[in-house]
Each structure stands twice: as C-alpha cells, then as structure tokens.
C-alpha cells in the first residue's frame, strides 16, 4: 500500500512516513484524535498469535482496556504487563518484568509488543523487543506529548545506568507509531510542559519558521488546543523522520536531536533520575547550550534571551541544580557523544541549523556559573 492509499483509509488521521535505507525499510506515524478506538489504526500489522501490551500503573487504568479491545480483534491472546511508573524505574529490573511476562505466557518470536505510555515505557518496550528471542516486532502507542513528538519515533531504545543516561540500549525501529492526540487530555500540566521542551528543540536545530510558529502558538499549546497540538506533533515527527531517514544510527546528522541533552542528561543523572523530568532537564540544557552557542560566536547575543524566554513561558525551569561545575563536567564526559574524554555539544549555528562542537572547560564553567543555582 502506498502512503497515499494508506492516508485515504485513515479517517481524520495525519500520516507521516519514515523512510529508511532508501525505501527498503520504513513505517508510518499516525497522528490524530480518536485513533485508539479506530479499527484502521491497528490493521495490517504482522500476523501473530499473541500480543503483549507494556504499560504502567498510571496509564493502564486510563487506556489499557480500550487498546485491549482493539487488539483482541487481531490476536487470539492479548496479555499485559504493568511496570512501576517513573524515570527511576527505567532499569534492568523493569526490563526483566517484560521478559518474565513474555516467558510466562510462552510468547513466541512473532508476538507483537505494544508500548502504551510515555517515553519511559516506549524506550523499555523497544529495548525488550530488540532482545527477546533476538528480536520481535513492536508498536509505539505514545500517550505523552514528549513521546508523540520525539521518543516514539526513530528507534532509539534504552534503559538508564546509575552512572549514565540511556547507556544501555539498541537502535530498533517500531513497526508503526499510533499517536492519539486525545490521550493528551489526561496529561498533567507539568508533563505537557516537559513535552514542549522537545517541541521547542526542533525549531533552532532544523526549522526557523517552526520556532516562530511555536512562539506565536505557545499559549494555544499550553491550553491543549487540538489543532495547535496536531500541527506541532506532525511538524516534529516530519523533522525527526527527515533526520532519522538520513542517519538512523547517529553517525553524524542525527546528533542534532541531542540539542540541550549534554547538559540535560548531566542534570538527570546527577540528581539520580526522576527528580527533574527529562523534558525539564532538556529545557534547561537548551538554555545552557544556547549560551554556549553565543559564547563561541556561532549565534548573536539575542539568541540566548529569546530561547530562555520561550522555555520559561513553556513552564520549564531555566536555572540548573547546584551540582557543582566539576560534577557537571564529569557527568558530561560520560555522554555518548564524547570522544576520548572530550565533551562535544550540539550547538546552534544559525537559526534552523545545528552541529557538534567541543568547547574549552573554562567556557563551559562560565555557562554553568551563569545558569545554575
Ligand atoms: N527514544 C528516544 O528517542 C527518546 C526521545 C526523547 C525522550 N526519551 C526518553 O523518554 C523518557 C521521557 O518520556 P516522557 O516525558 O513521556 O515520560 P514518562 O514516560 O515518564 O511519562 C510521563 C508521566 O506521564 C504519565 N502518563 C503517560 N501518559 C499519560 C496520559 N495520557 N495521561 C496521564 N498520565 C500519563 C506517565 O505514567 C508518567 O508518570 C525519558 O526516559 C527519555 O530519556 C527517549
Ligand atoms: O532520537 C534522537 O536521536 C534523540 O537524541 C532524541 C532525544 O530527545 C532523546 O532524549 C534521546 O533518547 C537521547 O539520546 P541519547 O543517545 O543521547 O541517549
Ligand atoms: Zn530528549
């Protein structure tokens, strides 16, 4: 089926294709209201005797039964496993709960895993799918804004290590992404803001006009206006699909999606995961990375206040926790982009363009002194 034909079979949904290996592989991202209860969302996935829904204690009471009802039309058995909720549980113990359930239910190598939840559930389900019997299919059903605009797309899967964020994982693509915008109705305002951090990220790194659009439409996004959310999710997925389509395994270009993350991951790991949300750490990290972009002469001075104002308006923190400069530097040397102990930051090189840069420690210390409590 071509993307055009598929689009016609989907009622109100938007369809963003992601094309890998020059069309040899790929999948669709479906975006729209009511997709959870829409039979066509679930049609045409690989045939299997069973499905396993992976979710958590918070999301399952809200959406599990509806997903199960749809999947029961296609799979003779639909099981579920609920993981503890939170970034601090994105670890081996939770991952093992998925393997335990797969084995208890004698799931075979065709069993399809469905990740119903935010980025934590998506990252862990994808990792489990990549490993179980050396690989089974999985589908992303993202229910947070962050997961709909970012984590469900592109095939990065992982768990955290106490010494480093997302340090253990695999590149493993889902078979489909189904983003029902209505699930965002039940999200807390804090989690909505966390998702906006990754929305904002796409502007400076890839699309200056989108940054302008976010500035104009931020209040509508914060008020959960459905058409504003639909546009934001679609545009973010288009940009991510464009980046991942060119560089699936982060040999170069894909690193731009890490804007703000070198500082952000240091905050998350430094605080022990969960105290700051990923989106909050990335928001604050983007303030720091914007400042570094200015200090290295890559961006004009007005870029920093522009980014800081937008991130603050989105309800995100703009002052980092007082971990101490040395601790920040030590944590950032563990970042996956570091090479030979040299920290490499994704910095903005002009609105809509980003690249990787090293920076003298003294300059980074000045950035930290300016933006940390
Ligand atoms: N793989 C990637 O490319 C990628 C990209 C960005 C972030 N991530 C990862 O994603 C994670 C962050 O994802 P997140 O922000 O979605 O956090 P999350 O998965 O922890 O979800 C946030 C909170 O919202 C709850 N929740 C989820 N959906 C809900 C709904 N519809 N209504 C009410 N509550 C709901 C969850 O139970 C949780 O408490 C981090 O671990 C981060 O590293 C991965
Ligand atoms: O998809 C990517 O590539 C990203 O970098 C998206 C990020 O928002 C996401 O947080 C990702 O998990 C970070 O990747 P990591 O390789 O730095 O762990
Ligand atoms: Zn991120």
UniProtKB/TrEMBL annotation:
Subcellular location: Cytoplasm
Keyword field: Amino-acid biosynthesis, Aromatic amino acid biosynthesis, Cobalt, Cytoplasm, Lyase, Metal-binding, NAD, Nucleotide-binding, Zinc
Domain 3-dehydroquinate synthase N-terminal: 81-193
Keyword Membrane assigned: no
Cofactor annotation remark: Binds 1 divalent metal cation per subunit. Can use either Co(2+) or Zn(2+).
Domain 3-dehydroquinate synthase C-terminal: 195-338
Classification via Gene3D superfamilies: 3.40.50.1970, Dehydroquinate synthase-like - alpha domain
Domain of life according to the entry: Bacteria
Pfam families registered for this protein in UniProt: DHQ_synthase, DHQS_C
Positions bound to Zn(2+): 198, 261, 278
Pathway this chain belongs to: Metabolic intermediate biosynthesis; chorismate biosynthesis; chorismate from D-erythrose 4-phosphate and phosphoenolpyruvate: step 2/7
Family the entry assigns: Belongs to the sugar phosphate cyclases superfamily. Dehydroquinate synthase family.
Protein name, as recorded: 3-dehydroquinate synthase
């Amino acid at each position: 089926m071509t993307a055009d034909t598929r689009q016609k079979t989907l009622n109100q949904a938007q369809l963003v294709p992601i094309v890998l290996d020059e069309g040899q592989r790929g999948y669709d991202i479906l975006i729209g209201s009511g997709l959870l209860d829409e039979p066509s969302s679930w049609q045409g996935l690989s045939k299997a005797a069973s499905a396993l829904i992976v979710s958590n204690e918070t999301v399952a009471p809200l959406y599990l039964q509806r997903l199960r009802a749809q999947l029961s039309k296609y799979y003779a058995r639909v099981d579920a496993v609920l993981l503890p909720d939170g970034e601090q549980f994105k670890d081996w113990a939770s991952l093992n709960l998925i393997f335990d359930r797969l084995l208890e239910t004698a799931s075979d190598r065709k069993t399809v895993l469905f990740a119903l939840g935010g980025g934590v559930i998506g990252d862990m389900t994808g990792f489990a799918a990549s490993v179980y019997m050396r690989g089974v299919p999985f589908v992303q059903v993202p229910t947070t804004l962050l997961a709909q605009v970012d984590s469900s797309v592109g095939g990065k899967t992982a768990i955290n290590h106490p010494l480093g964020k997302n340090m253990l994982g695999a590149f493993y693509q889902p078979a489909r992404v189904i983003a029902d915008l209505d699930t965002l109705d039940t999200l807390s305002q804090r989690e909505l803001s966390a998702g906006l951090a990754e929305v904002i990220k796409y502007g400076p790194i890839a699309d200056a006009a989108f940054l302008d659009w976010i500035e104009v439409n931020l209040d509508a996004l914060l008020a959960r206006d459905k058409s504003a959310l639909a546009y934001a999710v679609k545009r973010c997925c288009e940009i991510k699909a464009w980046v991942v389509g060119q560089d699936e395994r982060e040999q170069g270009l894909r690193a731009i999606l890490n804007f703000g993350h070198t500082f952000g991951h240091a905050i998350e790991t430094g605080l022990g995961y969960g105290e700051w949300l990923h989106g909050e750490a990335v928001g604050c990290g983007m303030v720091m990375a914007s400042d570094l972009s200015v200090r290295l002469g890559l961006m004009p001075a007005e870029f920093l206040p522009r980014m800081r104002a937008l991130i603050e308006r989105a309800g995100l923190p703009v002052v980092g926790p007082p971990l101490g400069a040395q601790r920040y530097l030590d944590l950032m040397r563990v970042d996956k982009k570091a090479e030979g102990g040299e920290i490499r930051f994704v910095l903005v090189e002009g609105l809509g363009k980003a690249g990787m840069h090293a920076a003298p420690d003294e300059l980074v210390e000045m950035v930290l002194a300016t933006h940390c409590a």
